[in-house]
Amino acid sequence: MERKIISSALILGITAIILGAFGAHALKKVLTEEALVTFETGVKYQMYHALFLLFLGTTALVSDVVKKKVFQLVVVGVVFFSGSIYVLATRTITGIDFRPLGIVTPIGGALLILGWTALLWNLTLRKK
């Protein structure tokens, strides 16, 4: 499980760096300042959670069952949250009108919160 979590963290980190550079250079010329800030929010949250998964994959403080649940919450949360933000921020150049499905973003955010909360809950319940 640790190898899968760490590999996923590295993929999220690598793609966050690529998307951040893409936003800072290529998208800067075609998006509004507001859309760029929105795009950057997706990148930041993706990177934060890549680092979170690195911690999760290397810690011995929780069981593999807990790691798996937190991992699933975080990965789906990042895809929903950051992914929907990328689509929303670039809709003027992609032509994809994602606004009717805008509920995906807060669902993704809720999943990320649940991932952090699940880890906290299990650390709190853990016997010393």
TrEMBL record:
Stated name of the protein: DUF423 domain-containing protein
Organism per entry: Flavobacterium cheonhonense
Pfam annotation, one family: DUF423
Record carries keyword Methyltransferase: no
Chief site of localization: membrane
Protein's UniProt keywords contain Zinc: no
Spans traversing the lipid bilayer: 47-63, 70-89, 101-123
Alphabetically ordered keywords of this record: Membrane, Transmembrane, Transmembrane helix
Topology of this chain in the membrane: Multi-pass membrane protein
Subcellular location: Membrane
Family: Belongs to the UPF0382 family.
Highest rank taxon of the organism: Bacteria
